[in-house]
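Please check both lines for our workbook:

___
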Amino acid sequence: MIATAYYPVVGQNVIEYNFTDRKPEFKLPDNITKGEFYQLKIDNINTNFYKITVNTKDSVTSRALSMPTFGDLPLDALTSAIAGLSPLSTAVNLALENAEESVGFMAKAYTAIDFAKVLKAVGNPRLNDVKQELNRVQSALKEHLNTLESIAMQIGNLKLKVYTARLQYMRLGGTPASFAYEDAFTTIERLRSLLPALQAEVADSKATYEAFAKANNDVIIGDLAETDKAIRAAFGEFETTISKARNAVNADAVNALLTSILFLENNRDNNFLSMPFQFTGDKAILDITIAPRGDSLLGQTYSTRLTFPLEKKAYAGVGLSFYYSTLKNEAFSFVETADTDSTSHFNAVQEEKAAGEIGLASLFRLGTMAGKAKKVGIHFSLGPGLSISDKVKPRVLYGVGMTLGDVHTLAIDLGGNTGYVDKKSVALDLSRNYSAKPETSVVSVLQTGIFFSLGYLFRF
């Protein structure tokens, strides 16, 4: 089993900013500790318009996204085809008018025209029937054209709705309304049923005309050949255009359209929340860049750098201090008193006790800042010391204290001071007369006293 550490993103570790105001007010996690996670949250920002880069590494999208819409579908070919078909009826009429003029001219100039040509152009009794059929085909083509133009108008309207929705989602400020997906589906389904029906009708008309043209080829092959050519070209253009129109509303095209709108709609809440970042050092530096998603979006680019925590709440350091302690050493002197000319005795006399001891200490301090001003710190202290006396004695000092200042601080400590002190030996009797001066009057005893110190600490 593998043990893992869990460091949650606590509420105070979310860096919040309101992009609407753009005031110099960031809520920074100054109390964050190593190992914890933090996040960047930007409110009231249109992420469809702006790309947000954090720490020179994009956390959402590294480039401007290409939004597929009907603008990427082959509507231009459809529009061009319709525009090319519009003068078709004129071409048919012109061909027929030319045929009529040819017939009138031939009737007036009968004696000057070769008989075979006149028979071909005027004398053929099926000419009127052919002309009527051409008129019928012309009317059918106009009906097909009207249907195709209606379909193109519906596709254009849907395209306009898509563009309008995109503009609303890209607009800065405000929350756009949701896109009407159901209406779009209804329109697309209607178009997908109309186009096959129209394609079948055009194919039917084409087959009927080709059968008629084949049966009357001897009449058409003459002055009506250009008309026949124009009609056949129109049928071919209709087939190509309807096929492209069906591709424009096929399942893949519809999926591309609605996916693009869905992406924009998913960002409609105008909020950005980054992935969690882990705090691993003494300071964190966030480089934030907010820029338009494309060069065509003529918006301003914003960038800033955040550094936190500017001052750590926790601190540690080692500094030198002078201390005063309640530990006391006892001292004894021996007074020699003559008994006779040749003999004497010694008496032990206790010297005046010192009020305490002073010394030097090198204290390690670990603590935290208190208050918003961050000029007062509270800490634990521990370290070695040396008493300053005729006999230098080692000491261990421990306790609590405080610092005053920013970086170079005055350190005040209070606590216990443990070490060996000189105490009267139990073998020494102050009331006894000794014939010889005792060699030992004190012994070393481990004791603990109270100390107070003043010193210097460079807080880091």
